[in-house]
Each structure stands twice: as C-alpha cells, then as structure tokens.
Fold this sequence. Notes:
With 100 residues, the protein is mostly helical. It has helices at residues 4-14, 19-24, 31-37, 53-63, 69-73, 86-99.
Amino acid sequence: MDSLSTKLRRARESRKLSIWQASQKMDCVHANGLRTLEGLNPDRSPSGERCELKTVMEIIRVYWPDITLEDFMGRPVSLKLVPKNTAATRSLKGYLAKTG
Length: 100
C-alpha cells in the first residue's frame, strides 16, 4: 500500500500541477502544508491523521478519486464521499471505466 505522501505526489503530478498551483486550487491550504504532506519538509511529520478536516476535504476535493478519506486515516472508515451532482457522477464513472 502506498503512503499518503506518495499518493499525494502522484495525484498532483498526474494533474500536471506544481505544489504551488495545487495549493491555489484549494481553499485555505498552503503550499508549505502540501510540501509537508508530500514528505518534502524535513522539519515536520507528513502524517495525514493530524490534518484539520477542512484541509483534508479540500485536498480530497481537488485530488479525488486518487485521494480518499482512507488515505488520510491509514485504515478503512465507515464514511463514503460521493459526488453531489449527476454530471460529476457521470464524469467519475467515465474516469473509473478508463482507469479501472
């Protein structure tokens, strides 16, 4: 199983974003926080379990479906995140059909 930092880096790179560009797409998420979560800040632990809920939800909003709540928790959780409109649901089904 990939670590959160590896998954975050892959999700960002697959969208062809720099850390700064990714942080600009997220409300109240700073580039330094993303650097820390990707394991690029040697002075801080990259643990996702200590993130504020707003930070977690913003990262999932931008990187979903590559990043899920389980990635931050490090274990399965009993919550499920789903798109709230039909266009997003159709888009997700197409994405999953293409990528497996």
